[in-house]
């Protein structure tokens, strides 16, 4: 299976407030995080953080320009913090990115190489944002990839459905959190069930 890491991406207070659909998303994501830790996988949190004044935001980047205009994603702001329901623990890594992909403007690649990680499990908000961008970037870097379908959310449920049911399965493994947890559980524990 290789040396894997769970990427928990953009699950920040203000993003959760915009996207959470009341379906138990944070509970499912919390279960995935605990399962990864129990299996000895690295848990890496990725957050988007823009410097005060947003010097890294180009007016040609519509998404970031609109977000910055709304005051979103400013480093150090309370809304930019990782949601407390899935907060990092000692030993987890937090990476700050400046763009859509978890790799863009961050040191994620350095962290992954230092830990000899070759397989990524993707979860986060939004499916059509950080998950899609990171999936494409990681695929080009030859990482093994799994997307946790119900470990992702999008502001548009139809876009989420299309990506996770039609597009992503053509490129990478997709799984529900519950099914994925069975694959990372201790084999002796699975046989005992």
TrEMBL record:
Keyword terms: Hydrolase
SUPFAM superfamilies: Isochorismatase-like hydrolases
InterPro entries (alphabetical): Isochorismatase-like_dom, Isochorismatase-like_hydrls, Isochorismatase-like_sf
Domain spans labelled Isochorismatase-like: 5-178
Keyword Transmembrane annotated: no
Highest taxon of the lineage: Bacteria
MF GO annotations: hydrolase activity
PANTHER family: ISOCHORISMATASE HYDROLASE (PTHR43540:SF1), PEROXYUREIDOACRYLATE/UREIDOACRYLATE AMIDOHYDROLASE-RELATED (PTHR43540)
Protein name listed in UniProt: Isochorismatase
Originating species: Embleya scabrispora
């Amino acid at each position: 299976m290789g040396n894997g890491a769970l990427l928990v991406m953009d699950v920040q207070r203000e993003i959760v407030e915009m996207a959470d659909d009341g379906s138990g998303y944070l509970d499912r994501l919390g279960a995935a995080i605990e399962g990864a830790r129990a299996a000895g996988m690295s848990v890496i949190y990725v957050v988007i953080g823009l410097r005060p004044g947003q010097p890294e935001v180009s007016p040609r980047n519509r998404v970031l320009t609109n977000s910055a205009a709304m005051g979103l994603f400013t480093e150090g702001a309370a809304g930019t913090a990782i949601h407390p329901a899935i907060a990092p623990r000692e030993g987890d890594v937090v990476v700050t990115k400046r763009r859509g992909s978890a790799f863009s403007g961050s040191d994620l690649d350095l962290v992954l190489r230092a830990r000899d990680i070759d397989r990524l499990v993707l979860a986060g908000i939004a499916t059509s944002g950080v998950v899609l961008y990171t999936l494409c970037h990681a695929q080009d870097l030859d990482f093994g990839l799994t997307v946790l379908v119900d470990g992702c959310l999008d502001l548009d449920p139809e876009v989420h459905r299309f990506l996770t049911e039609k597009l992503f399965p053509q490129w990478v493994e997709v799984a529900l959190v519950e099914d994925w947890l069975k694959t990372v559980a201790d084999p002796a524990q699975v046989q005992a069930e």
